[in-house]
Amino acid sequence: MNDKVQIGCIGFGMQGAPNLYALLNIPGCRVVACADVDASHLTAAIKAINGHYQSQDCKGYKDFRDLIARGDLDAVCISTPDHWHAIPAITAANAGLDIFCEKPLSHTLGEGIAMVDAVQRNGRIWQTGSWQRSQGLFRWAAQIVQNGYLGKVTRVEVGLPGGHSDFGGTGNALPDGAPPAGVDYDFWIGPSKMLPFNPCRFHRNWRWNYNTGGGQLMDWIGHHCDIAHWGLANPEFGCRPDDEIGPLEVSATAKFPNQGDVWNTATEFRIECKYPNDVDVVIADDDHGIASGAKWIGPNGWLVVSRGGIQASNPDFIREIQAKEKKGELKIQLYKSPGHMQEFIDSVKSRKRTLTPVEVAHRSQTPGHLGYIAAVTGRKLKWDAARQQIIGDAEASKMMLPGMRAPWHI
Ligand SMILES: NC(=O)c1ccc[n+]([C@@H]2O[C@H](COP(=O)([O-])OP(=O)(O)OC[C@H]3O[C@@H](n4cnc5c(N)ncnc54)[C@H](O)[C@@H]3O)[C@@H](O)[C@H]2O)c1
């Protein structure tokens, strides 16, 4: 490796842009290549990179496989839509590259299992875009729970947005049409089912159609369920570490639009999970009695954290944890991130595990994938978290890894 980590960025849309700017501002790395299947996004990325370094060195690619095959990269940063995480990530891992990849880890549960396997087999460093773990607010919350202020947690509530958010500004009622000039739409659809081009399920709004995304549930599970698991990850309370944690049973209800609608992802959902050691975990849209964020409840009180702040049944919990952290007196002190992207670059150099490695991200999203399958089948699922298998339900098991459109495969 050079003294600077050499990086290629794949996908330059709503989240690819802040990821790229974060990398450009880290002195220990250099972005030397980028890839996007939309020529206008690719041109914008190259302009931003070359403008920042005041050079003409950055090379752009339509095909991420050509970027990975350059041979001079140490790492990639993947900010493509959810249906385009698994294949670039596994290709990069097999090529010996380290990976920053956006949440949710994968579009299907089976893809997540394959991604964990590829990263572990190749000994790669992985950071997920679940950046809340790099924020003091969420660290304090997880520390309060892990240090036992609530006692043994019996119930966790994870509140995520419901409905759909029009990030693309298209609404959901435009007719099918021709893709914009410069877009390789066949490549953009990639491993998903070929559907006619519709602007309402393209850039940014692809997340509201199950062909390419997973709706609000999967858009947010890698944030608040990830934090909920982080708090639970204290073996002293009989819980598994957050790279092994998982439900034993999952049942769910959801309100789905017509499956032929352009936006067809669930607008309301409620997933009830039984975790080991008698912990009930409920994941639901936050319009129906579950507060946004992660809430832990134990015999000694409760604590809820979201991007809006942190609240506890006893505000002393928060004051005390902050004071003890300052003095270095906490029994369980979680790692204080220097910044989410910085931590990734530091780990690429040091080979130290990141705050959100692939195994952790996979476990954080698993109840969401299982909840979706439980809601569609209408059945309670039994989950073997060690073997990562649905027990005794062939139809539900098949839904873990629906086929990919040829020639794409993992
Ligand atoms: N961490 C966060 O807070 C956060 C916030 C928003 C989005 N995200 C995640 O970031 C990812 C991207 O979401 P977005 O909202 O930026 O989407 P987007 O539609 O705005 O951008 C995606 C980009 O990827 C490109 N692309 C698609 N397929 C490609 C391929 N095969 N190769 C190269 N480029 C390809 C598109 O052309 C587009 O430029 C998603 O997984 C999303 O969940 C994370």
Number of strands: 15
Query: How many domains, as an integer?
Result: 2
Bound molecules: nicotinamide-adenine-dinucleotide
Structural class estimated from helices and strands? alpha/beta
User: In the CATH hierarchy, what is the superfamily of the largest domain?
Assistant: Dihydrodipicolinate Reductase, domain 2
Termini gap: 28 Å
Based on CA inertia axes, which overall geometry fits? globular
Mean pLDDT: 96
User: What is the fold-level CATH name, i.e. the topology of the largest domain?
Assistant: Dihydrodipicolinate Reductase, domain 2
H and E order: EHEHEHEHEHEHEHHEEEEEEHHHEEH
Strand order of the largest sheet: 13-12-11-7-10-9-8-14-15
CATH architecture of the largest domain: 2-Layer Sandwich
Helix content: 25-40%
Rounded to an integer in angstroms, the radius of gyration calculated over CA atoms is 21 Å
Indicate the CATH class of the largest domain.
Alpha Beta
Number of helices: 12
